[in-house]
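Course assignment 3, question 2. Fill in each field.
Student: A.L.
Task: Predict the tertiary structure for the chain below.
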Amino acid sequence: MKLVSVSRWLWVAFIGMLLGASVPSSAEVLKIVVNDAIHPITEEYIERALGQADRDKDQALLIELNTPGGLLESTRSIIEKILASPVPVIIYVTPGGSRAASAGFFILESADVAAMAPGTNTGAAHPVTLGGGKVDDVMKEKLENDAAALMRSVVSKRGRNVEVAESTVRQSKSFTEQEALNQKLIDYVAPSEQDLLQQMQGKTVKRFDGKTITLNLANETVRLFDMTLKQRILAFIMDPNIAFILLAIGGLALYAEFNHPGAVVPGTVGVVFILLAIFALNLLPVRFAAVVLILASFALFTLEAKFAAHGVLAIGGMVTMVLGGLLLVDAPIPEMRVHLLTALAVSIPLGGITVFLMSIALKARANKVVTGAQGLVGEIGIAQTEIAPRGKIFVHGELWDAMSASGVAAGQAVVVLGVDGLQLRVEPSAAAQRAPSANTV
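Answer field:
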């Protein structure tokens, strides 16, 4: 009995050692780098990092931020996750020349610790309507009040300057790192990551839920947490310029496949590119009217090749494609829209290529068929025997059975009227001269 009890305790101790070995020996600081507009992939990346920091029991999550802003829905979701995080979140706007503008300012203010590097700026958080167009005064006031309320709720809990923070929403004010520090919008200005952690050493931080913690991070290891391959690919194709290029090339490839059925490669490329573009655009605010404009441009290219309108329809197609590209993504900041240079660089060559391909296809369809049974119709042959009403003729380098309603003498030229199975219908050719037999040398 004693032996069984000792064995049980040994097993418990062994399992405890294994579990202890799987836990990190000392907590670290997990770091991620956000250097892009704020969109769903950014949200997913930050959420994944927060989850990893919590599982590893890290002392803090350090987010190095450089963003022009982004989508409000993704911003709200990121703020919710930061506020609910059991791991303290430090947001550091770096390197010099970076910014945390618009949506980036909201995210910066939501952090347990907000810091900036010298030469950076933040603010300009006034809400912008999708597409940047004008809205009526009532809607403008609603958007502004909603954004201001979000700012107040976050900043007041963090113990920062609510009035100045709200001015970034209502008056679009921006601040340098020193101005932000002096007006209590951020907690530290630090030239480097190591300096920031040293400044925070032993300082008490009040969490969003009211609890306080003391940070001792000066000598801790900082571990970089990268995006997954999937996130890197999605972040790349979510650039509106890339999505537009994929959509345009995919459309051209499918267009080539429809004009040359069975080519396979253009069709495969077209489907893959269009699916990638659809996936990216599905995560972005898209104007469907712009998609219609892009489709209309291909229709105009086709009509130009068919009717030869001296370039008028082709130019119209290029204009509609440029407009479609520029209006495709209905984003609040210029960095999340298709650039004019991209729209021009894609539309002009694409228009020329499409018209060229369509012209070739139409010319090929207009050419007389020169192969098979249809290729024999209208050909001139030589009667090898008398045809009364049946006989043989020599045409297209071959000897054929032929029949004619009119009598044809041997050696006389005939024209092929049609093909009935393996027999040709012919009549004497008035235009052709009597030719020597095919058997003569």
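Instructor remarks: The CA atoms of residues 112 and 419 lie 88 Å apart. Confidence is low (pLDDT under 50) at residues 1-6, 16-25, 432-441.
Grade: pending
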